[in-house]
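Good morning,

Both structures are done.
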Amino acid sequence: MLRDKSLIPLSHQHQHALALCVRIDRAMPIPEADLAAWQTEIEQQFHAEVTIHFVAEEAVLFPAARRFEELAALVDDLLADHVAPRKYFDQAQLGSLSATHLSIFAQRMSAHIRKEERQLFERVQVLMTKEELALLGRQLTAALENVAESCAVPSETTRLRPARKRET
């Protein structure tokens, strides 16, 4: 389904986070010497975008979606999903993430984003009227106004690499 313009700002931010997750996945196994660079990038993305993104979802999108009984359990699940990434971001700030934790972070973050895009956004677009979606879009735009208008440029260590063949 084509994404409604009211949700596009969140979807764009999801793309940024998914790109990070793909790069982490392709870099696996991450050498110990590269962990600091990855943690720095995770911390930067969290401060530039994710913190405000989570607040916008929690203050605007999730309450709007919760009005629909069929979405209440999904919203609860998505709210619970926000806990783990915050812990990983805290660990990244402290420089205490292992390569295994980076991989788990990328898998969980990717799964969370896909759940929002494929389940929540799809259902919200079906259940809400055009007027409700327009109001939601205005509220999200206001909630996201302090997101840094920058493009995260990976370091030499964290740039995208060709997919590696994995042993099975």
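Second structure follows.
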Amino acid sequence: MRRTPPARLRRARQRSGGFSLIEVVIAMGILAFGLLTLALMQLHALTQGSAGRHTHDAAAIGRSYVEQVNRLPWTTLTPQVGLGWQAPAWAGVPDDDVTVDAPDGSNTLEHAYTIAWRVTAIGASTCLRDVEVRVSWAEEDHTANKQVVLATRRYDVGGASC
């Protein structure tokens, strides 16, 4: 005589054959959400990588100008009281608009930067000057220009009143 298994065991055997349609739809929804999130993160990483490269380029340009300022004769560093930021105007200065080529070497424009500088006297001293170099640029999807400001302080070594 053959025994039939209880009803709950028969149902368990029938279910173990695969997934229901609802389970597959829920799994596909979770997978789609995860892939969409991953794609958005990748786009954000590309944008931030580009912005980081522009900031790095601006800092490198600014460092170059600060190094040039450190080699300038003292007479070029006259304080510009009330004039604020101005285009660099010393002899042999490169243009105040700098363009950087794309990193792939194709000689296509990657980005454009604008350079300005400001010289201020420190206190009543005639021997000490603050020199600031500002590099600014427009970033995609930002309304305000971004900028990097680098500064140096110069002392008139060997000056008559120093």
